[in-house]
Specification:
About 45% of the residues lie in helices and about 15% in strands. The protein has three helices and three strands; from the N terminus they run E-H-E-E-H-H. A three-stranded antiparallel β-sheet has the order 1-3-2, covered by helices on one side. The mean pLDDT is about 80.
Length: about 90
């Protein structure tokens, strides 16, 4: 039985699916660097504990970097460059 404890019981704990085994270890290391709780279990599955929106965004971004094609990454980057931020307070 695979069980593990998480320091924050309010966290959403979920497996990361559709990632090759080698990419999982790379993803695991990157999530550790980002201080996102994660575990690679003996069966090779990768699990994460997400406590807030920023961690969810970082997880999404990290996974996309692992699975996106070169063209998908280029398209995403171009959309980011073209995005106009609406600031509530003007920067002086």
């Amino acid at each position: 039985m695979n069980t593990f404890k998480i320091a924050h019981p309010e966290a959403l704990v979920s497996p990361v699916a559709n990632i090759s085994r080698s990419d999982r270890w790379m993803l695991y290391r990157r999530l550790q660097e980002l201080t996102i709780p994660c575990w690679c279990l003996p069966d090779g599955s990768l699990w994460v504990g997400i406590r807030h929106g920023l961690q969810a965004l970082l997880l999404r971004s990290t996974v996309l970097q692992s699975v996106a094609t070169r063209q998908e990454s280029i398209d995403w980057l171009e959309r980011c460059w073209e995005t106009q931020l609406q600031l509530s307070h003007p920067v002086e």
